[in-house]
Amino acid sequence: MAKSAERLPGTSTRLRTRDDGCCSVNFLKYVLHIYNVVLFLSGLVVGGIGIWTVISKHNYVSLMTTSTYPTLAYALIVAGALAVVGSWLGCGGVTSENRCVLLIYVFVVMLVFVLEAGVGALARLYEEQVGPELKMNLNRTFLENYAVRRRETSAIDQMQIEFKCCGALRFEDWVVSEWHKDENVLKNGSLVPDSCCKTPTLLCGRRDHPSNIHYTVSIDFQPANIFANIIVTLLDLKRRKIGCIYKFLETTKDHLIILGAVGLGLSVLELFGIVLGSCLYIKLRHDFDD
């Protein structure tokens, strides 16, 4: 219950009470308790999305030329963990009305805000850069590193199986790759790696017939006008870009959109925590008005 304003005996000086102003201490505590529950749940969501991103793309990190993508995911995991810790810290500080704990809580929420907003902004920026980056470097990785570097070889095999594709751009590229220059490959007569096959088995890559491997057709067809664009859309020609580059790029962009939306969207939530925590911190001061 709010207290009425008190005055010092024999003076006109009014004592500042804990419930002065537009929001009482009890009201702020009640709202912050609700907010901390939301903060805790959002931390679990953010951390979960970060972990999901790391797990789903872990094997393909070696195929990327920069560490931006995994860095964004790990930053989200850290932000989620801090949000969970901050929510418990906030509950303790609010319940005990400990200004020192509240101050730490506000700084933790600020850090979560910076991390989430940074991830959101960088994800949106990297979304525009990842396309040219992959198109420039992934084909070279396929041609030069397959069967040369174990990590890249494993990642490429898994990519071709998961995305049902063959080659970075087209399956014919394999015959000019470092892999195809190997004596054993030439001796066995393999035209594509076994991971290109619809049912991968030993030496199945000796047949490059559409019934045996995932055919890769790369068409950079740009419609000349709106009518041509309608025809392309109806015939689904655009979806014939089924090289591993295009499929990997599509899923990567989808993940970046999710990271950006989560980062920017939930960073707004942290602003409320910063404001509410600061208000309660100030409200708990015991000083006098002149």
UniProtKB/TrEMBL annotation:
Topological relation to the membrane, as annotated: Multi-pass membrane protein
Main location: membrane
InterPro entries the UniProt entry points to: Tetraspanin/Peripherin, Tetraspanin_animals, Tetraspanin_EC2_sf
Segments crossing the lipid bilayer: 34-55, 67-90, 102-126, 256-284
Signal peptide range: none
Pfam families: Tetraspanin (PF00335)
Gene3D superfamilies hit by this protein: Tetraspanin
Subcellular location: Membrane
Keywords for this protein: Membrane, Transmembrane, Transmembrane helix
GO cellular component: plasma membrane
Record family assignment: Belongs to the tetraspanin (TM4SF) family.
Protein name: Tetraspanin
Organism in which the protein naturally occurs: Apis cerana cerana
The organism's taxonomic lineage, starting at the top: Eukaryota, Metazoa, Ecdysozoa, Arthropoda, Hexapoda
